[in-house]
Probable nicotinate-nucleotide adenylyltransferase (Streptomyces capitiformicae), 204 residues
Amino acid sequence: MPTGPRHDKGRRRLGVMGGTFDPIHHGHLVAAQEVASQFHLDEVVFVPTGQPWQKSHTKVSPAEDRYLMTVIATAENPQFSVSRIDIDREGLTYTIDTLRELHELNPDTDLFFITGADALAQILTWRDAEELFSLAHFIGVTRPGHTLADPGLPAGGVSLVEVPALAISSTDCRARVAKGDPVWYLVPDGVVRYIDKRQLYRGE
Ligand SMILES: Nc1ncnc2c1ncn2[C@@H]1O[C@H](COP(=O)(O)OP(=O)(O)OP(=O)(O)O)[C@@H](O)[C@H]1O
Ligand SMILES: O=C(O)c1ccc[n+]([C@@H]2O[C@H](COP(=O)([O-])O)[C@@H](O)[C@H]2O)c1
């Protein structure tokens, strides 16, 4: 039984998974896959942030490393792709710019922005919040430790989706690497090797 909005024949359905992806982990991949399946998406494009303004107090790895880890993690899935639009845009990253650009690049396409329950709860603080809902349908996915509650967003503009719980966060992955603990099976194998090769998260 489809749970997504009405499927308009002839229009492509593109999922957009934005994130810092420092590093990308299996929680992100499972969330994207589950939404793609429930909403009958043709493709999900992962969009690593350039400079996430709400993480300005946190040290973020170089965009090129986060982009390459996202490419490695998604390479085997024909339904997944990765976009450079946020990391190639100058200045701070705002989702309104991401969606405007994707909208122009993809005519005859409905956009579905996939985000965690924690991020969705903050969406009214995002830049040009009202216009966001005219550009995409927003899908909030469950995340262990965060309650999936409707934060009073425009009716019809938001869906909430249960995804199989994976208690993984990028923060925890970085802390594990810094301590010398393994991240095998929390992130894809190629990402473990990339972190090792580039010596990411050591000494943090
Ligand atoms: N385990 C998970 N299950 C479901 N959604 C997740 C999970 N981890 C992250 N997300 C969602 O994916 C999106 C991108 O996440 P992000 O790149 O910030 O990863 P993160 O694990 O939240 O990172 P950090 O711990 O550094 O804040 C966010 O909307 C976030 O809520
Ligand atoms: O546009 C905004 O103002 C805005 C504020 C905070 C987060 N976002 C987007 O939400 C997505 C998840 O962000 P994060 O920080 O949880 O990785 C990512 O695509 C960010 O660009 C967007």
Notes: The mean pLDDT is 91. Residues 72 and 190 are 6 Å apart (CA to CA).
